[in-house]
Amino acid sequence: MSEENKDFADEVKETTNEFSEGAKETANEFSEGLNNMAGGENKKMLAGLLALFLGSFGVHKFILGYQKEGIILAVTTVVGIITACFLVGYLLLMATWVIGIIEGILYLTKSDEEFYNTYQVGRKPWF
């Protein structure tokens, strides 16, 4: 029976690794597709508007190439939706919504050059 458990554990690890690699590849393809769709070097307007309207899902982070931060926002929002029957879910949703609004306003109020240097060249992921 111990051999069966070990085989099962190995199979789970392999499946998890395959899923992880697939998720990373998909996120990179998604980011590249959005970068191509955005066109040009400066993505200020697209990132700013997406931050205002879909900021809690982290879409604007993927536009700028910040996959880890985008996943953090998306997962926090989904957890907030799932736990909305408890008060904690509403707090999580409010937090991600506020982050999106603040970042959208910051993106749109910066000059093109300042935005490009801060978020695309300087790679500043938050605020």
In short:
The chain is an all-alpha fold and 127 residues long.
Would you give an account of this structure?
The chain has 127 residues and is mainly α. It has helices at 2-38, 44-54, 59-63, 67-82, 87-109, 112-121. α2 packs antiparallel against α5 (87-109) and α4 packs antiparallel against α5. It is flat, with a radius of gyration of 18 Å. The termini are far apart. The mean pLDDT is 84.
- Silhouette: flat
Largest sheet: none
List the uncertain runs. Answer: none
- Alpha carbon gyration radius: 18 Å
| Tally of individual helices | 6
Please report the distance between the alpha carbons of the first and last residues: 53 Å
Task: Give the key terms.
single chain, about 130 residues, mainly alpha, 6 helices, about 80% helix, flat
